[in-house]
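Notes from hallway chat w/ T.B., transcribed later so I don't forget. T.B. wanted the structure written out for a chain they're using in a teaching module, and asked if we could keep both sequence and structure tokens in one place. Agreed to drop them here.
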Amino acid sequence: MRRYGTAAIRQAAALIHAGQPVAIPTETVYGLAADATNGESVAGIYAAKGRPSFNPLIVHVPDLAAAERLALFDDTARILAAAFWPGPLTLVLPLCPDSGIASLVTAGLPTVAIRVPVHRAMRALLAATGLPLAAPSANASGGISPTRAAHVAASLAGRIPLVVDDGATALGLESTIVATGPDGLRLLRPGPITTAMLEAATGQSVATASGTAIEAPGQLASHYAPDRPLRLNATTADPDEWHLGFGPVAGDATLSASGDLREAAARLFDLLHEADRSGRARIAVAPVPPDDLGAAINDRLGRAAAPR
């Protein structure tokens, strides 16, 4: 583990150019970054995470111009990019024929998931490497996403050569993922950019993706899961349960005593890690309203509680 700074970014860039993945924070969660144009490098991500190869990865780039070299943008995609980039929005768009993106990144799909991050560490790494970087969350596949460097170290110890530590992530939830196209806007994964924000920016309604086909990260039924069984909408807890509260339900720790959904999103994965370390057999989570950012919080909790 190495604290963020010029030396850490230089080391991380050298490792990526050597074909190895490194952990780096973004504004959402810590990512496991590798050269998105090198199939062997991307395979290193899958190997470190134990991630199924049918699950595509998000490609991070520094700006819209770099994104347009990889994906085909329609008018709606450009409106969304202007409104929310750099930031926690991922667009799923048709892949340019000459993009150079390794097929393992897209899981063989004709589309690519692409994002322009705002976090200083990831932006510094993009500049230092000069490469598009594939970067899923830096944790064992299906586990709780990491919002601190210590979470990465605990989950991937011995599997990766470097974790760049730049403190806790600001948002604590993975990016919103949206597909644009002839059928309009489709929400593939809820996140910090809400449906209301998307509709306000575009003037279009947003449909929720249906069906079982995997088009983007975070769509597996079981995902973001702690080691212990998780029970939802629990206003009280049994003696063997660690209780995660919200609003009037205090619990052993709370997502937000005031009922602030942004605070709850930022604390969610951090507190799930704490619950997993508590020594109790199970985890119970208080009800979180589904409004606004609550939709993304409940999406993560529902997948974390799903049968494995």
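Follow-up for T.B.: DSSP finds ten helices and 15 strands in the chain. Might be a good example for the class.
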